Amino acid sequence: MSVFTTVTPEQARAWLRNYSIGSLVELEGILSGIENTNYFLTTSHGPYVLTLFEKLTPKELPFYLNLMAHLSSHGVPAPKPIANLQNEFLGELNGKPAAIVTRLPGKPVMDPTPGHCALVGEQLADMHLSGQTFNQHLDNLRCAKWWTAVAPEIYPFQSDEDAQLLRSEIQFQAGVSREGLPQGPVHADLFRDNVLIDGDIVGGIIDFYFACVDSLIYDVAITVNDWCSTRNATLDPQRSEAMLKAYASVRSFTELERELWPAMLRAGALRFWVSRLYDFHLPRPGELTHAHDPEPFRKLLLNHRNSAPPSLP
Prior knowledge:
- Helices cover 41% and strands 15% of the residues.
- By secondary structure, it is an alpha+beta fold.
- The chain folds into 2 domains: 9-102, Phosphorylase Kinase, domain 1; 114-306, Aminoglycoside phosphotransferase (APH), C-terminal lobe (Aminoglycoside 3'-phosphotransferase, Chain: A, domain 2, Alpha-Beta Complex), CATH 3.90.1200.
- The protein has a 5-stranded antiparallel β-sheet with strand order 1-2-3-5-4, covered by helices on one side. Strands 6-9 form a two-stranded antiparallel sheet. A two-stranded antiparallel sheet has the order 7-8.
- The radius of gyration is 19 Å and the shape is globular.
- The relative contact order is 0.14.
- The model has no long low-confidence stretch (mean pLDDT 95).
């Protein structure tokens, strides 16, 4: 969510003439993330978020925007895309695909309690159930095929030990079959900074631009890996239990999900270790950019390989 493509207030004013959401009041670049250009967009009608997509194509983007519209219509606190005067969610601004969505209340909680984790677990399960009636499909663009393809570009930057760890985990995951696991639309990036807590509720789930159709339990693993991790890259038992119990109160885990739970935790750690290594060592030029530290996910992966995971309820 860094600013790679600059939008001036004059350009935003001109672009807003194709919408019915009022005139520009304020435009502020958002400094976080690494995939898209995002601005807080305030108009005379209220607060929104303007996104310019740096990597995703106009062919891929309808899945994300339509999924957000579907989830928000089912009561999930997802950003609601705003249609322009041509009744389209997607437009073009400064040569990039662009969209406006509602700005949701709340703010990220970076030091979550078990109570926060329970809120997120319940909301994640609601999102998974609501997504079952969404009829579009998009494969996971950051799956085993992707991490296998980009790993050779990363190896030269690693120590021999870390390179061997990466090779061995990619090989392990290649032998894990997800056939038979419950599937559906997943967020695939539900980290602390992508959830807005508003008092005692989840005010918003944001940044759906890694969403895809994949195993639901993999999405749970990604979420647990971030929300329940400690500073020494282990999973906090109380937070893990709170999140998993709250999720299971809405959607029960299957026996196959229980069987593959340890492998899914490892897969979630691998996916983000690889992406952070790639962004750290092979960054794109951009204004207000920020690459995340890959080290916590290396440590988390090691800990998952060497210890038993928290139990699924």
